[in-house]
Amino acid sequence: MIDQGRDEKIGRVAGMIAKAENVVVFTGAGVSTESGIPDFRSPGGFWTKFDPEDFTIDKYLASPETRRKQWRFLLSGDLFNEARPNAAHEAIADLERLGRLNCVITQNIDNLHQKAGNDPAKVFELHGNMRWIRCLDCGGRYPVEEILQRNGKSEEVPVCGRCAGILKPDVIFFGEALPEETLQEANWRASHCDFLLVVGSSLVVYPAAYMPIYAKQAGARLVIVNLSPTPADKFADVVIHASAGEVMGRILAEVRQRLAGSCA
Ligand code: CNA
Fold it and tell me: Which fold has domain 38-82+130-171?
């Protein structure tokens, strides 16, 4: 049930999107929880089931047991493979179909924006993508299915087919640098938009969490849709603490109405 204050906010946000020249959407794990992928920090989130230490690059390199754990996680597969986009991803993809979206900048590694129909060239993945495996020695990059097929159901951690180097999911572990080109492009787009919409991020992980700050510094309107409060709420133009699927679906419907109205 959406309260009246929320209705009014949704209307305002839709109005801003309909008028904006350059809309950027910035997403975090919260946009995918309704697709069944837990976030990091909510109750029941990733860090209640996994040890963050196993996601540090130093431990990954030093410990064969950590690499085995990661491999078993990939073999169990279904968390990321089977997940389907939810109403929030669909609404964000629809913004692109309506010609209202410059790009998506995401911290997510789940590929769900692309599955929803966003042009992969306009999805900037700051923390990588679970669909890919990278060799830490020669830099070779392989689709995860290729490595899974090659290794069968074996729990033996595979090595690079070209150089026998250490393979790792192509996602950013603690202690690793973000992909430089992607980060620079994302920084530039956040600094040159006139509207930035945050969906489902606690905004505590840097440098990703600079995006709303860059946008605000450049004079853009900033809207945050997130279940719980974030450190950036205080400088946002509109903050909606509610589920992304519900709110994004409503925002999209209102944007459509406004665009149809402006064409009539
Ligand atoms: P986070 O710190 O776990 O925060 C998620 C935020 O989303 C929280 O503030 C929640 O209140 C909020 N939230 C949860 N469910 C919903 C919902 N249905 N609607 C609206 N808000 C919701 O995650 P961040 O993305 O901020 O942190 C960045 C990390 C998380 C990145 O390194 C990601 O790679 C990483 N991560 C990604 C995934 C994924 O790809 N789906 C899953 C888990 C973690």
Answer: SIR2/SIRT2 'Small Domain' (3.30.1600)
